[in-house]
Amino acid sequence: MSAPAAPATPSSIDDLPPAIEVRGVRRVYKAKPNPVTALDGVDLDVAPGELFGLLGPNGAGKTTLIKILTTLLLPTDGTARVFGFDVARQTTEIRRIMNIVSGGEQSGYGLLQVREQLWMFSQFYGIPVREGWRRVDELIDAVGLQEQRHQKISSLSTGQRQKLNLARGLMNDPWILFLDEPTLGLDVSAARVVRDLVRGWQAAVPGRTILLTSHYMAEVDELCDRLAIVDHGRILALGTPTELKQRVSAGSIFRLVLDALEGGVEPIAALPGVERAVLAADDATAPDGQTVAVNLQLTDDAVLGSVITALAAQDAHIVALQKSEPTLEDVFVELVGRGFGDAPEGDR
Amino acid sequence: MTQLAGSQARPQRDARGTWQERLLTWRTAVRLGWAVESNWADPVLFLIYSIAKPIASVLMLVVMLQVISNGAASTADLGFVIVGSALWAFVMGGIAGLAWSILDDRERYRMLRYLAILPGSLSVILLGRGTARLLIAGMGSVITLVVACLITGVPIDIGRIDWIMLLVCMAIGLVAVIALGTLMAAVCMQTRQDSWSYPEAVAGALFLLVGAVFPIVVLPQVVQWVGLLMPLTWWIEGIRRAVLPDAASGIGGVGSVWTDVTGTLAPDQGVILVVSMATTAMATLVAFGGYRWSERRARERGLLDRTTGS
Amino acid sequence: MTATLRIPEPFHPTSSPMEAARWTRRRKLATDLRAVTGRAYPRVIGLIREPSWLLFEILLPFLTTSAFVFVYRALQAPPEYVGFAVLGGAMTAFWLNVIWMMAAQLYWEKDQGNLDIYFTAPVSLMSVLFGMAIGGLFSSCLRAAVVLGVGTVLYDVVFTVEQWGLLIGVFLLTLGALYGLGMVLASLFLLFGREAWHLTQAMQEPVYFVSGLNFPVGRLGMLGFLAIALIPLAVGLDAIRQLAFAGSAAHVGTPSPEVEALILVAMVVVSLALARAMIHRLEWLARSEGRLTVRGG
Fold this sequence. Notes:
The complex is a heterotrimer.
Chain A: E1 20-29, E2 36-46, E3 51-55, H1 62-69, E4 77-82, E5 85-86, H2 91-97, E6 98-102, H3 114-124, H4 129-143, H5 158-170, E7 176-180, H6 188-204, E8 209-214, H7 217-223, E9 226-231, E10 234-239, H8 241-246, E11 252-258, H9 266-269, E12 274-279, E13 292-298, H10 304-313, E14 318-323, H11 328-336
Parallel strand pairs in A: 3-8, 3-9, 6-7, 7-8
Antiparallel strand pairs in A: 1-2, 1-4, 4-5, 9-10, 11-13, 11-14, 12-13
Chain B: H1 2-16, H2 19-38, H3 43-68, H4 75-108, H5 112-116, H6 122-152, H7 163-190, H8 198-209, H9 221-228, H10 231-243, H11 257-262, H12 269-301
Helix pairs in contact in B: 2-6, 3-4, 3-6, 4-6, 4-7, 4-8, 4-10, 7-10, 7-12, 10-12
Chain C: H1 17-21, H2 25-49, H3 52-74, H4 79-103, H5 105-112, H6 115-120, H7 125-154, H8 164-192, H9 194-210, H10 222-230, H11 232-244, H12 257-289
């Protein structure tokens, strides 16, 4: 079998093939007692220069799709291309133009210092020795690890570690960067640095593309040009954050923060005029862990009165009440019929 | 003030736990260690692994003996080598078992940090984890002894075995091996992941000093002195004397330090037991002192949850 | 406080992904070679940064070798046998390095989460394995040199070398065959998973025995022949022993060093080809079954 031909060099960014082109991709893992279908007929197009998000709960199939696109995994069925290169047969070409950064990644060798670790990775991308060291210093400055430059990586904090991972991901100047939960476990400040850097890096060169997976709604909402909502290996909806939020039916949306909700949301959801009542999954909603946040979608503002009465009957006190615009979580709930927090299994 | 000091001391004593609690911790750790060790392979492969190493070691020495003697090595010489070499499998497994518990739990399972914060003593947990390997090594030693004797025709007369001496020596030897294993665990707590081979290196070096397969009289005098301070020298001598009453002494002999100092050709059983106990007690003190220092240093420097591959 | 972000400039600007993906042969080769350096780097740095290996990997193994020397002395063996023990002690450094720091290493890399990075980098996994080998050779060579040098002086070993060129050639071929085997084992052990770890240990002494580490392997008869045909340590050690102690009456029943050199050449070729095939197979399995890039599998 002859090697597939490389796509022709285009004259401008507009002539580039899709950064990602996925057609009918299925991925089934052998498992006991039954095989697990992680992706079930996914179709997706991402344009060059886009920052595209995959939003879904744990187990939705986001990581599996990233693994397929980064040549770590073959699809069971279907085809996938990255800038026109086939993931099954043109792995070498894809590896030359992409990189991946995962949340909680622990790659590298604990005895190496930050600078040494990055230099080692620079060699895997064929960067000449001196240029490699210069590049390493640039990246250390960019991610803000100047003070940790000579620190052993085994002693880095989670945030510092993730900055290091991001620096590694930018080492080869990829045309496409895959970010798999890049801010997982980071504090607000470290997550902000990662997001700003990613956005700035992408904007610096037209055509640089990012595929971001996250289960942080706000992150996807803030960063992504377009996104797909994924659950159980299927794409449920696709569009810009604004387009997706417009899909949520008209009505009043409230966010309630309660001191407790021992009776659960079901009695509230059953009230007349309550279209939906779900526990909020977004960590930012109830950061102290002492309160319970509930997202409500009501047919009318007037229904709120009966909700408050019902809550009082459950001995639940309102800590905060906010009328809000629809969020991506509302979109997810609308599509799936359950909240993110109710996701049943580990990530795939 | 007295009251306050007492109330401050109590939590520390409680934190170390009672002997019953330690026993329970140890038993749990033994079960865990056994589950980990026996989980990786089917029983046949497991058995081959347990005996392939020690039998190969014995055979290597037997062939060396036969090559030099043109195939005419005496059964006494063969017995001397076989007993020492079979026991060495136990030493190797014991030392490595404890040391590898540290490396396994820190680098592979990333469990050491969680074990370290359990209310039970970390040393007791590690001892329990290493017990499985100690058992496997003990089993390997016995099988090696039997198989090697069958292959080479070395007769072991069951009726002439001094069982009391054998059992007492085995008990002392077990303590000595655990002490050395604890010392190696202390070392591995400080070193990097690539130190998997360190326990075997230590066991190999001790192989020289304790006269496991040759009488220490052939060693330079200074080295003989070092050998005489090693509990394993006396342990092997005791076992050899119990199993093969006619075997030559590994400690004494014309020109040996022992004979020069005591005027006797070989130590008798009583001396062997007393010195064995004394040197084992010394080794145990050094080992547990070393371990406590190492654990404290590891906690101070955050070494318990690092990964150090290269 | 908000730090000002400095976005790094493109270090090798390309006009399109297609251009970026198009590498010349020279660039491909250079990248593979740099990957060798990159992978060797942490090994060497690790050794420099934590010198405990000087005690555990040089001094103590020397004592182990000495134990075998004293076994021969106790048996009043001919002097060249002491030399055999010293030579065997030196060569064990390479075998230990192969099984501990090569064969089991990919399994470790997987556990540490590095395997994903290696798979997604635009380099051959063979380069990564070469890097491991080169890094490991640094300490192994030092250990072998110390055991050989100090052992020779301390135990009055007299070498009788008549064919220096062949001796050096055989030594290099032995290293090639050993590390080639290490690469094959690395792939195999990754597939075996946890059992690999125990196979590593289980292989140590049996290989010493059948390779005739401290005695002429010809004395093992058919077993020795089989070892010479299959195990690089056995054939390499026997050839080196014959060449380093030329004229010794101990060498009986094994092929000449020239023939053994040819066997080593075949082993190098076969092991490298096999390693390459294994790595392709491994990568295919990793991608099709999705289990090799998952920690703890």
